[in-house]
Amino acid sequence: FILTKPLGTGVLLAGAMRGEVNGMNLKSCLSAMDQSNAAAAKIFIASGATSMTDVTGFGFLGHLWEMVRGSQFGVRLNTSSIPVFDGVTELIANGTTSSLQESNESVLQEFVIDSRVDTTKLRVLVDPQTSGGLLASVPEDVAQDCLKKLQDAGYSASIVGHVVDSAERVVEP
To answer: Is 10 exposed, middle or buried (0-12, 13-18, 19+ CB in 10 A)?
Structure first.
């Protein structure tokens, strides 16, 4: 799985409304929100993406769950490789969340969460996004090439997990 933009727009925008966000962090968030997903979608399609979604109001895990539920495939996520905007984890640690945060957290029960995963990072994974990036699965043999093309096109893309041949959905540190 490849994600094209960092997570945290929901909490950054909620924090900005409360005057809690550093101007540079907000500028970075707004710049990413303004970046079109069109070029990324074309790169994913050319790379043979087998599934793709935008990451919006249901948060990263909500959209990922929609991609894998009902299939014979699952996912192993590496939370340390999931990009997050600067300032997001501090805002969440200090109690700032968006209005949809609590309802989005219900999807956590659909995943096996490794006990070493930081709870603040889990909250980031369900933060509702505004104009978030794309999340796509591409064949493993082209993933690195696809990632490079996305990064060359200006996306903060990262490989965030792998499809597995079972229905397990595991979140690891």
So the answer is: buried
